[in-house]
Amino acid sequence: MGPYSDMEGGLFRPYLGPAHHATIERLTEWMTQAGLSVRLDGAGTLIGRYEGSVPNAPALVIGSHIDSVRDGGRYDGMLGVVLGIEAVAVLHAESLRLPYAIEVVGFGDEEGSRFPVSMLTSRAFAGTLGGQDLTLCDAAGVRLDDALAAFGLSSRSLPDAARSPADLRAYLEVHIEQGPVLEAERRSLGVVDAIAGQYRFQATVRGTAGHAGTMAMSLRRDALAAAAEMVLAIETCGRAGPDDLVATVGRMEVRPGASNVVPGEVVFTLDIRAGNDVVRGRAADAVCAALHQIARRRDVSLDLVRQQDLPATP
Fold first, then answer.
1. What three-state secondary structure class fits 273?
2. Is the pLDDT confidence value at 147 over 90?
3. What family does the entry list (predicted)?
């Protein structure tokens, strides 16, 4: 599935994009060949169902996500979907039915690869997607509800994507390790016993733009210099916590973005995660306090908008 990408020379498969659509078509073929009945839910999650020997029994859900961040790994997410299809294909070839149904799912958005929040489709599946999410815009200014319509879906059908817990037996996801722990310990398999909680913020730093050659250093309110100090403060706060606390600035936009202009505005993302929500909350408070202190000292303004708050799963 690596070639299914919306960028040249690398992998980028954003939610509701052309590569997402092409991936759904190919996975639908494979699911059908494996004996699954296939449908797309209201959020764009691909679902293949293999009925069990007991009618209406709760289903075992196997799957992962099919979207990818820019320059993502070709096995990230896709491994869990393809292995689910392969497992059902073996049962189908042997004409075997389990005492419960199996559903193989491919979530369209886990990474937040297009819109500024993550897990849109799995939250729709769980019934926790909020109406405010429909007004989210991507980098091109396209609203989520408009993107759904362009994909052939309707925002009015989103509530129908929610599944009742009574209809589900369990959820199983096989995933690549996105860190070096297992490799360093020479282990081939690890079992996840918790999922970290996550905050996502967008920070906007505003100073005063000016000519790089004529604005004296003593008069500058450089938004980028302030943002750079903020990034270091974020790193310091992250390192001060327990091992499972991480703090990341993954994207930064400098405006006006000219080599001969002192930056007047900087927008950057902030991602804070921890396995314990109390630890995560304290870290977020410490980070926010440090950033505001830097802004006051450097005489720039700072707007911090919390875009997402996903609790840890023990």
1. strand
2. yes
3. Belongs to the peptidase M20 family.
Beta strand pairing call for 168-172 and 261-262: unpaired
pLDDT tens-digit series, residues 4-26 = 899 988 999 999 999 999 999 99
> Whose CA is closest to 103, among 63, 76, 65, 159?
63
Both tokens assigned to 57: 């029994």
What are the DSSP calls for 39-93, one per residue? EE-TTS-EEEEE--SSTTPPEEEEEEE--B-TT--TTTTHHHHHHHHHHHHHHHH
For residue 52, is it left (φ>0), alpha (ψ between -120 and 50) or beta?
Answer: beta
In one-letter notation, the amino acid at residue 63 is G
Residue in 261, 106, 123 with CA at minimum distance from that of residue 173: 106
pLDDT cut 90: percent of the chain above it? 86
Q: Report pLDDT digits (tens) over 98-140.
A: 999 999 999 999 988 899 998 999 999 999 988 888 889 998 9
On the 0-12 / 13-18 / 19+ scale of CB atoms within 10 A, 265 is: buried
Averaged pLDDT, 188-196: 91
Residue 8 CA, chain-centre distance (Å), reads 22
Q: Residue 243: CB partners within 8 Å, gap ≥ 6?
A: none
Q: Which domains does the chain have, with CATH numbers?
A: 18-184 (3.40.630.10), 197-310 (3.30.70.360)
For 34-51, how does the pLDDT look when each residue is reduced to its tens digit (9 = 90+)?
999 999 999 999 999 999
E strand segments, the chain: 37-40, 46-50, 59-65, 102-107, 168-172, 197-206, 210-211, 246-248, 252-255, 261-262, 265-274, 301-310
**Residues 239, 245, 250, 251, CA torsion sign:** negative
Q: What is the DSSP letter of 27?
A: H
- 176 contacts 75 by C-beta, under 8 angstroms: yes
Best CA proximity match to 44, nearest among 176, 145, 132: 145
- What's the predicted TM-score (pTM) here? 0.84
Distance, in Å, from the CA atom of 170 to the CA atom of 59, rounded to the nearest integer, reads: 7
